[in-house]
Amino acid sequence: MKDGKRLRLGYTTGSCAAAAAKAAVWMLLSGRRKEIVRLETPKGISLELTVREIEFGEDCVRCAIEKDGGDDPDITTGALIFAQAKKAHTPGVVIDGGTGVGRVTKPGLDQPVGSAAINSVPRKMIRENVAEVMQAFDYRGGMEIQISVPQGEALAKKTFNPRLGIIGGISILGTTGIVEPMSEAALLETIRVELRQRRAQGAESVMLTPGNYGSEFIRDGLGLDPRQAVQVSNFIGDALDSCRELGFRRVLLIGHIGKLVKLAGNMMNTHSKYGDCRMPILAAFAGAEGLPGGEIARVLACVSCDDALSILEEAGVRKAAMNRLMEAILQNLQYRGGEALEVSCAMFSKVWGLLAVSGNAGEI
Predict the structure, then answer these.
(1) What number is the average pLDDT over the span 350-354?
(2) pLDDT (tens digit per residue) in 20-75
(3) Res 106: pLDDT
(4) Residues 6 or more apart whose Cβ sits within 8 Å of residue 277
(5) DSSP structure string for 41-75
(6) How far apart are CA 136 and CA 142, in angstroms?
(7) How far lies 316's CA from each of 108, 283, 293, 359, in Å?
(8) CATH number 3.30.2110.10 given to 10-179
């Protein structure tokens, strides 16, 4: 349920790949067509999926499952995930990617450099389902499984794959086999993957920013490459947790005041659904620097932070209030980051530019 509406679950590309592989092996060993395949997902939900595009070759079988992301805005929904099964002399199940499945070119991801971007859980699902069919037919030889996605290369341009160094197609993903609509877990995992990759490449410091405003300021205001920053959306607290767990030593957070002001109130997820405390916080910190009561009332009535900053500027307290605000933000960030992680911060406005910087931000 979300906002009073019942949303439909979907299933992952990993489930599609495993189901297609299971069906292809069954048809290869039986010589018969299979129109429906049953798959048990790691989440414990059983799927009955229609097998599409069945092709019998001389020594192989190829078929597909259509991806359905449910009510999640999933760009892979409707894509056909193919699996080709071919007998091999060496016992065991060998899994690889074909057309439209990305290749890993940078360390720090779920799979090693050079491997197809088929993650660990989907590989386990494929291997277990293929082995189940092989055992049912008492087949003791080997099996080669190739996963492909004809639309994969085009779809990958709409994902984080090019940024992560996965080239040539999409990744075959999924930890539960099921897609949950509007899943925060999926967004968090995307952030963790990029942080893990940076750490695996030897980085001890990392720059974080909530989103596009921050990336633009990093480029236009600081003259740095915005690709150096990891976009963490509203999940600032969770991103700090990941940085600490991965062993980063230093973090620099660069963000717009509209997001970062909430950190002074210890709101480590800055999404508006958790509250909007921007004006009360700005009013309190400006009041502590001498903003008169009547002007505080004006700040509380503001809609945007830039309007509030105009009032602070007129009263001559903007700089002092921003420095006080930064002290509170940094205190909360450092508490969340822990002793092993040195945290610094820079806060800006699109109208007023750089508003406040913690002491060690320039060094980082």
Answers:
(1) 91
(2) 999 999 999 999 999 999 999 999 999 999 999 999 998 999 999 999 999 888 89
(3) 87
(4) 261, 262, 265, 267
(5) -TTS-EEEEE-EEEEE-SSEEEEEEE-B-TTS--T
(6) 14
(7) 49, 14, 15, 23
(8) yes
| Res. 3 pLDDT band, cuts 50 70 90 | low
Task: Write down the pLDDT at residue 5.
Answer: 78
CB 60 within 8 A of CB 68: no
Q: Determine contact, residues 354/346, Cβ cutoff 8 Å.
A: yes
For the record, the structure tokens of 342 come out as: 């040195």
Alpha-carbon distance values, 306 to 37, 87, 164, 310, 351 (Å): 57, 66, 35, 6, 7
Q: Where are the domains of the chain?
A: 10-179, 184-357
Please give the structure tokens belonging to residue 257: 């005041």
Whether the Cβ atoms of residue 226 and residue 215 lie closer than 8 Å to each other: yes
Quote the CA–CA distance of 26 and 30 in Å, as a whole number: 6
pLDDT of residue 2: 67
Tokens of 345: 């911060």
pLDDT at 209: 94
Between 46 and 276, the more confident residue is: 46
Q: Check residue 147 and give its pLDDT.
A: 98
202's CB contacts (< 8 A; 6+ apart) are none
CA–CA distances in Å: residue 334 to residues 9, 245, 263: 38, 15, 11
What is the rounded CA–CA span in Å between residue 11 and residue 122? 12
Task: Name which of 298, 234, 228 is nearest 263 in CA terms.
Answer: 234
Residues 6+ apart with CB under 8 A from 39: 15, 18, 19, 22, 46, 47, 49, 125, 129, 177
